[in-house]
Write a structure and sequence with these properties.
It is a single chain. Helix content is about 55%, strand content about 10%. The chain has 20 helices and 11 strands. The strands form 3 sheets. Strands 3-4-5-2-1-8-9 form a 7-stranded mixed beta sheet. Strands 6-7 form a two-stranded antiparallel ribbon. The protein starts with 6 loop residues before the first helix and ends with a helix. The structure holds adenosine-5'-triphosphate and magnesium ion (MG).
Length: about 400
Amino acid sequence: MQILMPPGAAAVLALLERAGYAAYVVGGCVRDSLLGLPPQDWDICSAAPPEATAALLQARGIRVLAAGLRHGTITADLGAQGRYEITTFRVDGPYADHRRPSRVDFVTDVREDLARRDFTINAMAYRPGEGLVDPFGGAAALRVGEIACVGEPAARFQEDALRILRALRFAAVYGFALSPETAAALHAQAQLLRAVAAERVREELGKLLVGPSAAAVLLAYRDVLAVPLPETAAYPAADYETAVRAALAASEPAVRMALLLRPLGPAGAEVLARLRFDRRTVERAAELLQWRDAPLEASPASARRWLARLGTEGLARLLDAESVQARAAGDAARWARCQALRQAAAAQAGACTSLRDLAVRGGDLLALGIPPGRAVGEALSALLAEVVDGSLENERGALLARAAKWIGN
Ligand code: ATP
Ligand code: MG
């Protein structure tokens, strides 16, 4: 068995080996290589203490980033050949807060290092010449498509509760099943996820939701999702399934999350803020949730009103969300309304739907005698509303005449 690795990784391994330290590629890159998938990044582990690794690299003129030094990790920056994290073989000390070991101890045997890793499929290392090191049956688990903890699942989830979500993420991404013991421990200990920082939950959840098998995972592990998202526990079963299927059919993160939380209405946006989604995502989802029950009338004036309210992109997003939702809910009439409004909006491309498009500016209204300040903005908005409704033409003379009437001259 041979793993083809990028030249940069091979060079780092060779450098460490020549200095007398055993060195392996490890973890996700070995897993993905055995699956025939291109690894995201190549992590290296070695018997070399971090300071020795840094010295060896620097002696070769290789730039070293030492941000993770305390945990035994340094990063070699090989420029065009990429960056490689190099971690000293280590075992984790006792875990303090269901998340981080209180200390790490360096060891000399790669097998001890592999024993601290989360799942058997992630606990393999490879070294040219020696071949695959797979003490926990990771390769066999890959063949049958199984996620199993290294060691006792309950204890491993106690140590680090993020592993609960990682297990589901790998299941969703690879279409694997959890081993019965791992699944049982995961259900039993899902509450531990409350100890995990919102950012970490959000990141794992994001990767889970784009996995090809996410639907099966979210339906089978609804109780686990309900720990970070307790609001979803109140959905009736049919609504939960619709929300999941709709969310997974969406391609934009804001749309996906809005659909998952759609039964909550506008309150769903607060859930996203709590999970520390970025502001843009929260705002976009809030907009979708605000308008989720809108009738979506497809007349030309309605299309212009929607464009004025949400802009071209915002309306496209709402119609994406609502048509995906309608399809998941089996609501053919609603789906057809989405398509009709989409076409009506396309036909209004170039119509006046924002202050920018209006044929008069604030200065024109000041010249008419409208007092400076808020009144100018209000008058512009009122003119725009009439143009959008179709009761006034977007033509300078017509707009000024209309405004003149308001101020009574
Ligand atoms: P990805 O494809 O997302 O990079 P990965 O398995 O490489 O998947 P990383 O977070 O990059 O995930 O972690 C690299 C390796 O470190 C894992 O393969 C695993 O061996 C180990 N590891 C990561 N997180 C944990 C954890 N929470 N507990 C135990 N081992 C972990
Ligand atoms: Mg990785």
